[in-house]
Sequence to fold (251 residues):
Amino acid sequence: MLTKRIIPCLDIKNGRTVKGVNFVALRDAGDPVELASAYANQGADELIFLDIAATREKRKTFASLVKEMARHINIPFTVGGGIRSAEDVAPLLEAGADKVSINSSAVQNPNLVDELARAFGSQCIVLAVDARKINNGWIVHTHGGQIPTEKKLFSWAKEGQERGAGEILFTSMDHDGTKNGFAIDPLEKLHELLTIPVIASGGAGSMGHFADVFALGKADAALAASVFHFGEITIPALKEFLRKHSIPVRL
Fold:
């Protein structure tokens, strides 16, 4: 059985790690390079580094920060923010990133998923999907969760897989930063619908929430930010907890 992955997420704005609730009310959470190094040493399986203002500010993720991060960690990491073409991806991979995450740009131009998968391989492409439940449907949002779209979570995730995405990163905007648990029902549906891995994001507040997202939500990986950034949960303790609950993890 494949081990489940624990992935700290570093949302970056103006060179600092930040964290909010429901995609707003951001507060400072520390230096991203220091946090990345600490998580690698604690046993994180991967990291995700998202320049959350890049799309809204119409600029590209800073490759220099990616390069600095790669110098300090020895685990895979994904970079996202402002990626609109293959020309944006190459410098990030050259700087040391293992994968890239695309979100708003893929919604606006779905062919981007095909283009990047052909150029770099599906294993490098993570399709991030931010969605909120509206009138009993999960509606995809772009630009850091600010703009609702006509796309629906499940059909868009399936299309992303068919176009060549190697993983789906689903963030429930309703659960983001609330610490009330992950969105189990849509995660379970994504698991049934897709053949590629699903990363769960939004709502981690306790070790039990991680156990639930793997056992009930069938997620392949769980992403969290504030519970790690502010020391509420440590990765070694979390992995030991999951192991005791018969969830396979890399210790």
Remarks:
- Residues 5-244 form a domain with the TIM Barrel fold (CATH 3.20.20.70).
- The first strand starts at residue 5 and ends at 13.
- The radius of gyration is 16 Å.
